[in-house]
Write a structure and sequence with these properties.
Elements lengths: L2 H11 L6 E3 L21 E2 L6 E2 L7 E5 H6 L5 H5 L5 E4 L7 E5 L2 E2 L13 E5 L2 E2 L13 E8 L3 H4 L6 E7 L7 E9 L3 E12 L2 E12 L2 E2 L15 E2 L4 E16 L2 E16 L15 E17 L4 E18 L8 E20 L2 E20 L6 E21 L4 E18 L7 E17 L2 E12 L3 H5 L1 E3 L2 E4 L7 E14 L2 E13 L2 E5 L5 E5 L3 E13 L1 H4 L5 E15 L12 E11 L4 E10 L2 E4 L11 E4 L2 E15 L3 E10 L7 E3 L2 E2 L4 E9 L1
Parallel strand pairs: 1-4, 8-11, 28-32
Antiparallel strand pairs: 2-3, 4-10, 5-6, 6-7, 8-9, 10-11, 12-13, 12-43, 13-14, 14-17, 15-16, 17-18, 18-19, 19-20, 20-21, 21-22, 22-23, 23-24, 24-25, 25-26, 26-29, 27-28, 29-30, 30-33, 31-32, 33-34, 34-35, 35-36, 36-39, 37-38, 39-40, 40-43, 41-42
Amino acid sequence: MNKFWAMVLGGTFSAFGAEVTVDTSGEVATREATTYSRVLDPIVVTAGRIEEDRRNVTQAMTVVGQEEIAKHQYHDVADILRNYGLQVDASSQNSAMSQIVIRGMRGGQADDNTGLASPILLLIDGRRAGTDNLAMIPLVNVERIEVVRGPGAVQYGTTAMGGVVNIITKRGGEKPSLSLESGGGSFGTFKSQIEGSAAAKKVDISAGAAYLTTQSYNVSSDRPARLANLNRNHYANTGIDNKTAYSMNVGYTPSAQHRLGFTMDRVTVDHAGNPNQINNPDKSAATNYLDLDNYSFDFAYTGGADALGLTWEGRYFFGENKYYVENFWDAYGFGADTRDITRYQGAQGQVNFSQEFLTVTGGIDWNNYDSSHTDNAKYSASTFAHHNSDQHNLGLFALAKLAFFDDRLILSGGGRGDFYWAETHGTGIKGQRKNLSHLAPAAGIAVRPFAGVTLRSNYSQAFRLPQAIESFGYRLGGLNYKGDPNLKPESGETWDVGADFNYRSFDFGVTWFNTFYENKIDAIQTPTFDYQYVNRKGTTNYQGLEFTGGFDIGDALGLPLVIHPYVNATAMLNYRDGDGLRLSRVSDLAIGYGVNFAYEKIGTSFDIRATYYGKREDTDVSVAPPYDNPTVTVGGVTTLDLFVQQRLYKSEKYGQLSIKGELRNITDAWVETVANYPMPGRSFYLGLRYDF
């Protein structure tokens, strides 16, 4: 389906809609209690670092509930977020590296294993996940996924330039629960998952584990003209030997307002294929792979005193992120073994005061990243480089919110100050130290003039502090990356204005945003083929519209079933750098839309879901040196998926058994989120799920 029809269908369903959306991609409340429900009533979110009614959040926000997560066999968090009008890039469907793009700003860069170089911040339960790689975030034991569209620097500090993704883990409840799922499908794929929760007296627990293995996949034969000479459809080295994910949340509640909690999360990837471009396969693809491991332990305490209107919380967490690539000689004779290990830790403390119309939150954050990098370049037996860096960040923040006229007028504001210091050492690098500080304010307003109508506006500043390697440099193989200790922090300011309308069966919304981004840190190639870190001159501008909407036809007609068309979209109106040049790898349009059907009486549910991948410019890196790589256009295609779930058995005593089926990329479209790295062609999945 071309871009024109994608926009027509999107506009049909989303002329106006919610700036804050909940499960718009297909979860609608049935007239009976079912697992297919989309919660339209107020829910709590943590965009302001405390739980609050989502309608009182002045920023644009998307919340994905656990019903949507459980309904399909998603590979990872990235697979979900594509359905919400967000761009997610990966070198393959089974890639161990997935980067999200929010409002044109993309996460990650090649020499970063910490997330500190990303303008997008990933959190687990409100603390840093230690990575910006969506593939390394557990998708088990998840209560909901919150996406703040726009800056979150005042709440969370450095790197939250374009947005924040916060994974909220489940807690055990009074009613025990258990779910089991297992199945398989195309390309030798096998998946299995277990989740459970319970509570007894003062102890609660919720936990889950998942396993995935898959082989290399086939791609569509409908290849673009630039790959017309490609004579194969099998894309070698795109499988994963195994990927496992674990998550556990345990709590002890000695009294009503006090809880001691422990959370553990881990994702490990063993031998994930690290493919080269499909038109330029690696000479030794079978041994070109990635091994990754990201784990964290989190200890938290929450307390409060109702009589004083006070609550408080504190936590300490630590973890480790390992990245290992075995990259043997490629088609041009280059390769390297690379090992990155980052040990991270942090502490948070905050106090919240809430009394009638006033809520005030203040606190402190501390984060430390201790990273080591080792590179053994194979094109020169004598070339061996390593560097270590130690980075500390201390932040102080204060947030306030005023609510008037029975929450019809919401005023919010806040500020944050951050202090940063770092040092690095390694091959050819002497130990150095850098101190700098940064301030960031934010303010917002929400007005509800009529029932079901909300108008919002928000202004935020954000920043990204330079990494140690950017300030002091390092070596990678035979190349020198020269640092600059006088680098300025990247800085940005964002305005957004939005409106939402929620009335009975309708849910529509639109948000306009405008971001100005300065002092972008980048590595510029020198005449000697080394690289120099610099602050880019000029101002980068990101401007666009976000749409979301849905209409429950079944509810409108009083039928005991769900027939629900929906849409989520981001349209970029401007994305140019300080020289006025259009930015690469930014989609002009990203849309997820479709129709959800659910009939609880017979236990049937299915989604027909389309994803439009907008056009974007990328670099064809398959062209040999000397680095005169051409620019190519990718995207502009739509994939169509079908998800079906049918209940086989239901008992109040013994639970429920269902069969699930998925048919992905039905039209066998050619999809690239990175030039010359195509996604799979048509595929299927079939599995069984038991819920108690």
